[in-house]
Design brief:
By secondary structure, the chain is of the alpha/beta class. It has 14 helices and 11 strands.
Length: about 375
C-alpha cells in the first residue's frame, strides 16, 4: 500500500503571489524539487489540496487555475515528479462549505478518487495553521514549512508535528520518521512472536509449577512465612508476587505472610556494606527464617551469588526452596529443592515468563485459601 503526502500549493510548492492565475508566473520554492524527489524515490505519492477563493471572488476562472497546475506539473515532470491529483475549494470563506481547509472534504474526495485511506497519509505539508488543522482533522502528522507564510505563523506560535526550513528538510524528516516507525513495528512483531513461541513451551512446566504452589500453600497453612529474593528485575518480580499474596490477587481472603527481601533499603545497604553484597539476602534469612518457611529464589541466569547463598542458608534452616530461573538453570537448578526453568535463554523472555508463573502460582494459592 502506497503512502501519501498531502501538499498545500501556494507558499508550499510555489511562491505566494496573491491570487496567482498566470502560468507564466509560476515559480517553485527552493527545496521543493529536491524534497519531492526524495519522497518520490521513497515511493510516496502526492495529492495537492488548495483553497482557491480567487475563483469565487471572480478574480480568475477554473480554467486559469488548471493552467497553473499544468505548468507546475510540467516543471516537476523534468525531475520525474508526478502529482497524482489536484483538489481545490473555489468557495469564499463565509460560504461555510465542507471542502475549504481546514475541513477534510477535499482530502476525503482525493482518497476516494485516488484509492487510498486516511490512514495511508504520512503527512500533510503546508505553510499555514489551516494546513496543520487539516492534518489533525484527517488524523495525520503535520509539517510546517517556513516558506510562504510559514515563518510568520511560526513566530505567532503555530507549530506542526514537524517544523522545517523547507520541503527538502520536511522530506528527509518524514522519511526518517516513517523508517523509525517501521523499525519499531518490526521490533514489536519480533518480540510478540518470540514471546508466544516461548509461552507455548511452558506446557512442560505445568507439573513443576503446580507442585511449587502446593508447597507454598502447605507452608502458609502451617504458619510458615514466604520469603522471596532476586536482583534487578527479579527483585521487582519478588516484590510483585509478595504484594499479590499479602494483599489480594483476584479474590477476597485473609492476608498471606509473604515478604520480598529486597524492600528494606537500610538492611540492604548495611548488610552490603558490612558483609558484602553476596550476604544481603542470606543474612535476612538467617535472622527471620524458621523451619517450615519457604523461599522463592529468582535469578534469570541461575548464578546470582547472593541468591545462591540465600538458598544455601535457607536449606540449612529447614526452609524449602523454590528456584525461578532460565532454561539452563545455572547453579540454582541443583541448589534449590524445586526449580522452575523458564524455557528461554533470553533475559527479557525469562522475566516475562517468571511473572506469568508468579501470577499463576498466586491464583493457585489464593484458591486454596478461598475454598
Amino acid at each position: 500500500m502506497s503512502r501519501w503526502i498531502i501538499l498545500d500549493r501556494d507558499g508550499t510548492l510555489i511562491r505566494e503571489k496573491g491570487y496567482l492565475h498566470d502560468p507564466n508566473e509560476v515559480e517553485l520554492i527552493a527545496g521543493v524539487t529536491e524534497g519531492l524527489r526524495l519522497l518520490a524515490a521513497a515511493e510516496y505519492r502526492f495529492a495537492v489540496v488548495t483553497n482557491q477563493s480567487g475563483i469565487g471572488r471572480g478574480y480568475y476562472s477554473e480554467g486559469d487555475m488548471r493552467a497553473v497546475h499544468a505548468r507546475i506539473d510540467e516543471i516537476l515532470a523534468v525531475d520525474g515528479i508526478k502529482i497524482d491529483g489536484w483538489y481545490h475549494c473555489p468557495h469564499l470563506p463565509e460560504e461555510g462549505c465542507g471542502c475549504r481547509k481546514p475541513k477534510r472534504g477535499l482530502v476525503e474526495t482525493a482518497a476516494a478518487e485516488l484509492g487510498f485511506s486516511l490512514t495511508d497519509i504520512a503527512a500533510v505539508i503546508g505553510d499555514k495553521e489551516c494546513d496543520l488543522m487539516l492534518a489533525k482533522a484527517v488524523g495525520a502528522p503535520s509539517a510546517l514549512v517556513m516558506s510562504g507564510y510559514g515563518g510568520v505563523e511560526y513566530a505567532k506560535g503555530v507549530r506542526g508535528d514537524l517544523n522545517c526550513e523547507d520541503m527538502s528538510e520536511a522530506a528527509r524528516r518524514i522519511i526518517k520518521k516513517e523508517e523509525n516507525m517501521l523499525e519499531k513495528g518490526e521490533i514489536y512483531r519480533r518480540n510478540m512472536d518470540d514471546h508466544l513461541k516461548t509461552a507455548v513451551r511452558m506446557a512442560a512446566l505445568e507439573e513443576t509449577v503446580c507442585l511449587a504452589a502446593k508447597k507454598i500453600t502447605a507452608a502458609l497453612l502451617a504458619g510458615g512465612r514466604l520469603f522471596l529474593c532476586g536482583n534487578g528485575g527479579s527483585a521487582a518480580d519478588a516484590q510483585h508476587i509478595a504484594a499479590e499474596l499479602s494483599g489480594r490477587y483476584l479474590k477476597e481472603r485473609r492476608a498471606l505472610d509473604a515478604a520480598a527481601l529486597s524492600c528494606n533499603s537500610s538492611a540492604l545497604t548495611a548488610l552490603g556494606n558490612d558483609y558484602g553484597y553476596d550476604e544481603i539476602f542470606s543474612r535476612q534469612i538467617e535472622a527471620h527464617g524458621r523451619c517450615g518457611d519457604l523461599l522463592i529464589a529468582i535469578s534469570t541466569s541461575g548464578n546470582s551469588a547472593n541468591v545462591l547463598k540465600a538458598v544455601s542458608v535457607a536449606k540449612g534452616k529447614g526452609i524449602f526452596t523454590v528456584g525461578l530461573t532460565g532454561e539452563s538453570g545455572g547453579r540454582l537448578r541443583e541448589a534449590a529443592d524445586l526449580t522452575v526453568c523458564a524455557p528461554s535463554s533470553f533475559t527479557p523472555r525469562i522475566q516475562e515468563i517468571h511473572i506469568l508463573i508468579g501470577h499463576t502460582i498466586c491464583e493457585m494459592v489464593e484458591r486454596d485459601f478461598c475454598g
